[in-house]
Amino acid sequence: MLRIAVLGYGYWGPNIVRNFSKVPGVTISWVCDLNPKTLKEIPKVYPTIQTTNDLSMVFSDRSVDAVVIVTPPATHFALAKRAILSDKHVLVEKPMTRSTPEARKLLSLARATKKILMVDHTFIYTPAITKLRSIVRSGMLGDIYSIDCVRTNLGLLQKDSNVIYDLAVHDFSIIDYLFGVPPKTITAGGITQKQLGQETVSYISVVYPNSLFVHCHVSWLSPVKIRRMIFLGTKKMLIYDDIEASEKIKIYDKGVSFTNNPKLSYQLQVGYRSGTVTIPHIEIEEGLFAMAKEFVRAVNAKKTPLTDGLMGFRVVQCLELATRSLRSGKTIAVTKTV
Q1: Are 213 and 205 in contact, with CB atoms under 8 Å apart?
Q2: DSSP H or E stretch at residue 319
Q3: Distance CA 29, CA 110 (A)
Q4: What residue spans define the domains of the chain?
Q5: Residues in domain GFO/IDH/MocA-like oxidoreductase (predicted)?
Q6: Residue 15: which residues within 8 A CB-CB, separation 6 or more?
Q7: Nearest alpha carbon to residue 168 among 17, 325, 328, 42
Q8: Percentages helix, strand, coil for the chain, rounded to the nearest 5?
Q9: Nearest Cα to 312, choosing from 88, 170, 118?
Q10: Which CATH topology does 2-122 take?
Q11: What integer is the mean pLDDT of 149-167?
């Protein structure tokens, strides 16, 4: 039986507890939160879970095998470090840390102690993204040369994080999962809300190897909620729309072609192809439940999880460099530091 403690029971914590409670072979021993009203409500739903506002109660409990950290990003590093030093495996919410030095230290510590360090990049575990990866890697789209990402909504404005760390984290993690390579350069611009001292709108241009260009638009100041990625390939095009209830992926047999006839080089000979639209079947499963099962599998089997600490580091690096680019007005080169 794997015994887990959950730190934080605010917005996302109840979802974490609900899903881990359904995983066979798992017992949630503790929920720790600073809000006394929250702690009083937990036993009404989960009578066997112990509650506390004292972190030392959790970290000193030798029966706890793993800790799930569902607290604000600024606290991730200190809590994850303390958990690993307390001989516990760690699952931490995205982003793994606020900076690459912190991410590097956690990664090194987990390796040295042989503890599982995993990041909850939930989208990676959704059936739609699993299907998307299968399509991309099958070559159906051909060589992908451009991805246009839009992730917008109204709020929630935050004082301890900017829109890049809040929303672009999803696009960077998905692209990392699809292609498995870090970018070469990152250029970002945007709007800073003076009252918050944080960026609330950002446009991020990212160049990856093999001439892949990615553009991300993220915003807390949009009247509509959008979660869309458009893939342009040499063979076909694809739209992934997470807002869609059932038709999240659409494959378009559309494109352009250019003549290779040197005799016609003085003319612009372009052919446009407009074929059928294919909507693949996608299984229904909550991504968070699949993520919870993956963490349990990794801990029990002592195997590297799908969204491990190394992936978490790469994503944090992208977020950090995009923010640096926005604030400096410069294009930032991505260097390998792990």
Answers
A1: yes
A2: helix 309-328
A3: 22
A4: 2-122, 124-286+318-333
A5: 130-238
A6: 288
A7: 325
A8: 35, 30, 30
A9: 118
A10: Rossmann fold (3.40.50)
A11: 93
DSSP labels, 101-156: HHHHHHHHHHHHHT--EEEE-GGGGSHHHHHHHHHHHHTTT-SEEEEEEEEEEE--
As given in the structure block, the two tokens for residue 236 are: 């076909």
The amino acid sitting at 304 is T
pTM exceeding the 0.70 threshold for the entire prediction? yes
Structure tokens at 296: 């349990």
Nearest to 199 by CA among 10, 329, 69: 329
pLDDT tens digits along 70-104: 999 999 999 999 999 999 999 999 999 999 999 99
Q: How much is the pLDDT for 262? A: 64
d(CA 61, CA 146): 50
How many angstroms separate the CA atoms of 32 and 26, rounded?
17
Token pair for residue 74? 């600024």
Superfamily of 124-286+318-333 according to CATH = Dihydrodipicolinate Reductase; domain 2 (3.30.360.10)
197 φ/ψ angles, rounded to the nearest 5 degrees:
75, 20
Amino acid at 78: A
Query: Tokens 């260009």, residue?
Result: 213
What are the distances in angstroms from CA 17 to CA 8, 50, 70, 90, 320? 10, 12, 10, 15, 30
